[in-house]
Amino acid sequence: MTTVDKEPSMVKQKEMIGAHFDRLSTARDDGKKVVYTFVPGNLTELLLSFDVLPVYPEINALQSAMRKKSGDFITEAERLGHSEDVCTYVKCDIGMKHKGNIGPTGQVLPKPDLLLLSYTGCFTFLKWFELLREEYQCPVVLLHTPYQADGEITPSMREYMIKQIKSEVIPALEKLTGRAFDEDRLRELLKLSARAEDDMVSVLQSAKHRPSPIDAYFGGVYYIGPMFTAFRGTQGAVDYYSLLRDEVEGRVARGEGPITPDGPMTTEKYRLVVEGPPNWTDFREFWKMFSDEGAVVVASTYTKVGGVYDFGFRHDPHDPLGTLADYCMGVYTNRSLPQRVSMLEHYVREYGADGVLVNSVKSCNSFSAGQLVMLREVEKRTGIAGGFIETDLVDARYFSAANVKNRIESYLQMIQQKRGGHAQEARP
Amino acid sequence: MDARQTVEQLVAQADALYHDLDFAAVKAWRARTGGRVVGCLPTYSPKELIHAAGLLPVHLRGGGDQLEIIRGDAYFQSYICQMPRGIIELALSHRLDDFDGFVFPAICDVIRNLSGIWQLLFPDKLARYLDIPQNFDVEVGGAFYAEELGRLLADLEKLAGHPVTDEALRASIAAYNTNRRSVEALMTLRADKPWLVPADEAYLIIRAGDVLPVEEHTAMVDRYVALLPQLDRPVRDHSRVVVSGAFCEQPPLGLIKTLERAGCYIVWDDMTIHCRFIHGDVSTDGDPKLALARAFIERAVESASVYSCRGSKGAELCRTVKTSGAQGVFFAAPSFGDPALLDQPMLQAALDQQKIPWTAFKYAENLGQFQVIREQAGTFSDSIRLWGD
User: Fold this and answer.
1) Searching chain B, which residue's CA lies closest to the CA of residue A80?
2) Domain range spanning residue B70?
3) Which of A157, A273, A381, B252 could be a cystine partner for A353, CB 3.0 to 4.6 Å?
């Protein structure tokens, strides 16, 4: 295995995450309250304004998969009666709880004091926290985010969200912490969010350069990490994204390609847009299937699952509750299929992609149902050929490395043939 | 014609409607009235709105075990449930050409995304996703839902070509109240004297309401319920069971028959919960949209597609077992049917606490082999009859 020199932003991110899990491990002793919530439609700034510590079960699940522990957890959940058909994030989380609730840093995660059920873009979330409510016997506060079925946010949808935040979420947090809602504090946090969001968008959009200085899928999941989890609204996130932006701009200036598992990519041969979450159980191997072929992902939809920022949305401190509502309703999986198709079409055109590849995961119907129709529509609109592979999020039983590799290589060969056999560099 | 012959005729009529995937009855209604047709996906749609607009609401399922899926499989991955393939197949084979609009209620991500597929594939048809509220405060979720109903009604008015008055909507609410009462009467008879009401017959009679205008369906159910006590049907030594989890994709009719043949009287099920989704009547006073919203917020049944915030999970299922006199529960869920499957561990725990026996199996709407389930059902039935309390 090649050792990759870590850039300062990588080191900083690792420190941030480590410090967060340290805080979680001592939360009880420190008198801190812990709130479990989900990445899509998270209200991190609001939680931080109450000084509570957020935990994101999806992140724990994917971290477990990357540490090769998810298989045991899923087996444990299935032994407890959870169906083999359902979301493996849920089973991984429940299995992890039953096996000691050891988090990604090896420390025991605290039990939740409150479950903030941000029901945004994924039906399974609803069931997941019903299950956790039974597991932990703790209170739940629900935030139901209306779906953008017609590709728009109506005043009624916005009003519904704000009413829920005011009448349900904030009172629940006030009761939990014994302190009053501080709107000025929330505004300050939202200001910091917007600054970090500017830099993150700049990083993601750097992939329009040739060669792309980033991989916007495999690398992208690291870049979105702080923004989508416990750090949005903090000075730490502002500093991280500023640092990351400087590094990426440096790579652009030097004409360098993205960092890969084997170091910087020297020759960019294929530029792809990817729809769907990655597989986490074999993440590195999966990434290498692309990078070994000189394929770089220039845009991905998964990096919009915790917020779509590259079409102009920023958290607005002048309208603190309204902006939280807009953010929740705007996340990728809360958008209609026609909206998702338009985003993919935009990415293909704006980022000069050679192809669109769908990684369809068994666990996630929110992403997966309809992807075949979406792919055909994108092909029709852009004239480029689409590719399709199937894996799972955190269940290694559904990651068939040979099949996936074969499909990716075949797809890239098809792109090459469509170019007239010129595989050396991506089209200008 | 005696009672037996009339019942046989009613069941034959319902059976013909069940098996007609070309929707001849819908075409006939359309030809007779000149009206337009709106398909409703599972589980619950406020059909009162459609009815009030003078449109025919038709409850759509998939293709069951009668339709060969030729094109539908190209639209969904192998790990997506069977029903949406059947619905796509029906549409692509032009069986839904007489439908002018479709309502996709918020039940799961697959039905939600099917609304988007419809927008992409059939842009000339109305495809309305109905966001069912998961907040059960009348002032919050209720107000939002009333607005959603208003948006749906505006679409339906466009389809109908005329506005819908509050008076018309109240009349439709009354018609569906009557229908719910009739269906509940059938369910009550089923629980009281299950030997009179074979599960497949009850299922067919209730499902006739999927395509018949509500008034016709009410008359059919009433007639059936009135005639049953006149029949001399033998009382068998069957166990009494509840079937839970089959509220969306439906088990094949053969599977329903199989469960009874295995020695079980099905005294309650959620296969046809869509027409009993509200407990009791919807008010016909005041603003009718608010009345529908309030009824849903305050009196919707416990269902996997509705967030459980009213007490402990499974409490309603346990009550249903007790009130229907059931001795056990079959968890019958469609393969990859997320809402039902994710619910099961919680419901099973609630039953365990009450010492109510249960067993579980999965099916698909096009399942063709029932032997394994028959053996499982038979063993379960024997066990609760021989060793149950």
Assistant:
1) B345
2) 3-168
3) A273
